[in-house]
Design a protein that fits this description.
Blueprint: E1 2-14, E2 19-28, E3 31-36, E4 42-48, E5 53-56, E6 58-63, H1 72-79, E7 84-90, H2 92-98, H3 100-107, E8 114-119, H4 139-145, E9 151-157, H5 160-163, H6 170-180, E10 186-189, H7 196-204, E11 209-210, H8 216-224, E12 228-231, H9 238-246, E13 253-255, H10 262-265, H11 270-279, H12 284-289, H13 293-298, E14 315-318, E15 326-331, E16 334-335, H14 348-351, E17 386-395, E18 402-412, E19 415-416, E20 424-429, E21 438-444, E22 452-455, E23 464-468, H15 471-484, E24 487-492, E25 495-501, H16 513-529, H17 537-542, E26 552-555, E27 558-561, E28 566-568, E29 571-576
Parallel strand pairs: 1-4, 1-5, 6-7, 7-8, 8-9, 9-10, 11-12, 12-13, 17-21
Antiparallel strand pairs: 1-2, 2-3, 5-14, 14-15, 15-16, 17-18, 17-29, 18-19, 20-21, 20-23, 22-23, 22-24, 24-25, 26-27, 27-28
Helix pairs in contact: 2-3, 8-9
């Protein structure tokens, strides 16, 4: 018997026993043919893997290609060399901007990477009464997408209030479509901070997975209630890993990336998460298991996730398991060579319609936009002296949570003096030309130096967000983003200090990841120079408008209390100077 490929003498990951053993691997066509300590076959090609480790291809079942601000073909070129061979992508960012056209523009692209998809379940993430998006996904779109065999799940269900409503809400009807489908699909969830009866209600509605930030307590409670856990970087603390280890939860856990910024993507994708998990105390065999086999099983991808006869021949070869950077990657039995799949100049022009490049329809900012006139609550006076009790979003140093605070701010001649209090102002411009509205919020612990940031990469509706403490810089940053037709702009001391254009829908670059990564590194550096402190400053700013992430967020409709899903006024009450 002659096979196509034999890899000999490697330390091969034995999935079911979760250990490495010295083995030969035979490949015929796109599949593994045999595995044994010594194989007798002849082969067209033999590779000696003495001293090297051989793992199944990594499988990322919860991620968003648009979070890397790129498109599927460029994403494929970037991540395959990292040993990632299969992903399940939820294109809900493209769906929020373009609806079904956006989803199909991604799904129509041919890639060497196996890309399966989740149906965006929450477009918009809440409802049109709370935010304005460019597209919507309803029952008709869900039924159409379910016909495609690449659809494996319903993407993260976010809207807790509608999910458990006694009324038959849209998300409940979408879930019915999935459960009535002849081919079963998984129901993925997004439920940060839910616990007790609220968590039980979420799971009873049919959603049995969560990828949001976990604690040691939440991984135990959610596992006990039958929820599958997808651990991303911010959940990989020593406490969480110790809880997984102590309660033997590995069968119920997968490692995922969720969002990978382009300047981080240049250094790795799911392999970075595996490396982090091991660094924080997870045994390497468990980390490999939870990035190959458990994710494949969760998404019913039974043809991959392990090196075994009949499975798709996806694997990666490593010199060591500390750096977790492969020296060779095989996709469907063929060696993947990056030099054969280079970025093509202007490639995106053939992949997206021209209309995807003209999507910002809001007006240019004026400095007076950032003056907040405050009426005295009881009398309605407009020119008065006193103070106002305002709702404030407080930046945290880790994660995307904005803590809800209240604070008294001086009012002089009827104008809210937010700058005097060291606060930043956030303004959202509705960008789709539907309402033309502006909304306002105040942020504490943002910038300590003068400056502003504007972006259209603003979860999930991607309206144009600008935050800052200088009206001149805020207007300048907003105008720069408008001129670029989307992206990030940073301004300080009256000049643009960094920018990253995202001309496709305001969320996707048409440039290679290497070029985009350098631009975004500069944006990140300039934001940090302004004094913004967070574990991921880009994501922290871009989720100010994410209405399903605790606790207080800002949409084009106004400030939203995330738990109650109610719009709050910026000013709760006022008092004159004598009060």
């Amino acid at each position: 018997m002659k096979v196509d490929l034999i890899l000999r003498n490697g330390w091969v990951f034995q999935t079911i026993r979760q250990r490495f053993e010295k083995m030969d691997i035979a490949v015929a066509g796109e599949k593994f043919y045999d595995i044994s300590p010594v194989l007798p076959y002849e082969a067209e090609c033999e590779v000696d893997c003495e001293g090297k480790y051989i793992l199944p291809g990594l499988i990322d079942i919860h991620m968003h290609i648009e979070s890397s601000m790129t498109y599927p073909r460029e994403f494929s070129r970037t991540v395959l060399p990292f040993g990632v061979t299969t992903v399940v992508a939820d294109a809900h960012e493209m769906a929020n901007v373009f609806g079904m056209k956006g989803i199909k523009s991604f799904m129509d692209q041919e890639t060497e990477l196996d890309i399966f998809y989740g149906i965006p379940s929450s477009v918009p993430s809440t409802s049109p009464t709370l935010e304005t998006s460019g597209g919507m996904i309803g029952e008709a779109e869900v039924k159409e997408l379910l016909k495609d065999p690449r659809i494996l799940c319903l993407g993260e269900v976010m809207n807790y209030k509608d999910l458990i409503s006694p009324d038959k809400t849209l998300i409940q009807r979408i879930i019915d479509c999935c459960e009535e489908n002849t081919r079963p699909v998984r129901l993925e969830g997004h439920c940060p901070a839910l616990t007790g009866a609220a968590l039980s209600a979420f799971i009873r509605a049919g959603v049995d997975a969560d990828h949001t930030q976990q604690t040691a307590e939440s991984v135990v409670e959610k596992s006990d209630k039958g929820m599958f856990l997808e651990l991303q970087a911010k959940s990989l603390t020593r406490e969480v890993i110790e809880a997984v280890e102590a309660h033997s939860l590995y069968e119920n856990v997968a490692l995922v990336t969720d969002d990978t910024m382009p300047d981080h993507l240049a250094d790795g994708q799911l392999n970075r998460i595996v490396r982090l998990a091991v660094k924080e105390g997870m045994p390497v065999e468990k980390a490999v298991y939870c990035s190959t086999y458990t994710p494949a099983r969760r998404m019913q991808l039974y043809d991959r996730g392990m090196i075994a006869p009949g499975k798709i021949a996806d694997l990666a070869v490593y010199d060591n398991l500390e750096e977790f950077s492969p020296v060779a990657v095989y996709k469907s039995g063929k060696r993947y060579r990056p030099e054969d799949h280079l970025y093509i100049e202007d490639e995106a022009g053939s992949l997206f319609p021209e209309e995807f490049r003209k999507t910002l329809f809001c007006r240019e900012a004026r400095e007076e936009d950032f003056t907040i006139v405050c009426e005295e609550k009881k009398s309605g006076r407009t020119h008065w002296q006193g103070k106002a009790l305002v709702h404030v979003m407080e930046v945290q140093t880790f994660g995307t949570r904005m803590v809800h605070k209240k604070r008294w701010v001086p009012v002089k001649d009827g104008v809210l003096c937010w700058q005097e209090e060291g606060l930043c102002l956030a303004v959202v411009y509705e960008r789709y030309g539907k309402t033309g509205s502006l909304s306002f919020g105040l942020i504490d612990k943002a910038f300590s130096r003068r400056g502003a940031v504007a972006t259209t990469w603003s979860h999930d509706s991607h309206n144009l967000l600008v935050i800052g403490n200088s009206p001149e810089d805020m207007a300048m940053a907003q105008r720069e983003v408008l001129y670029m037709q989307g992206g990030y702009g940073v301004a300080s001391q009256g000049k643009i200090t960094a920018k990253a254009p995202l001309p496709i829908g305001g969320i996707v670059s048409d440039q290679p990841i290497s070029r985009l990564a350098e631009e975004l590194k500069e944006v990140r550096r300039e934001i940090e120079t302004l004094g913004y402190v967070n574990s991921n400053v880009i994501m922290s700013i871009s989720t100010i408008g994410l209405l399903v992430s605790p606790e207080l967020k800002l949409s084009d409709k106004g400030l939203v209390d995330v738990m109650s899903q109610e719009i709050l006024p910026l000013v709760e009450e006022t008092a004159d100077q004598q009060a």
